[in-house]
Amino acid sequence: MFELLGIPPQALFGQLLLGLINGAFYAMLSLGLAVIFGMLNVINFTHGAQYMLGAFAAWLMLTELNIPFWAALVLSPLAVALFGILLEKVMLKRIYHLDHLYGFLLTFGLALIIEGLFQWRWGSSGAPYPSPIPGGTNLGFMFLPTYRGFVVVAALVICLVTWYGIERTKFGAYLRAATENPTLVRAFGINVPRLITLTYGLGVGLAALAGVLAAPIQQVSALMGTNLVLVVFAVVVIGGMGSIMGSIVTGFGLGLVEGLTKVFYPPASNTVIFVVMAIVLLVKPAGLFGQTK
Amino acid sequence: MTGQRTVAIVLLAAALVAPWFAYPVFLMTALCFALFACAFNLLLGYVGLMSFGHAMFFGIAGYFYGHVVKAWNMPPELGLLAGVVGAAILGVATGALAIRRQGIYFAMITLAFAQMIYFFCVQAPFTGGEDGLQGIARKPLLGGLIPTKDDRVLYYVVLAIFLFGYGAIYRFIHSPFGQVLKAIRDNEQRAVSLGYEADRYKLLAFVLSAALAGLAGATKAMVLQFATLTDVSAAMSGEVVLMALVGGLGTIIGPVVGAFIIITMQNYLASFGEFVLVIQGTIFVVIVMAFRKGLVGELADWWKSRRLTG
Question: What is the ipTM of this complex?
Answer without folding.
Answer: 0.89
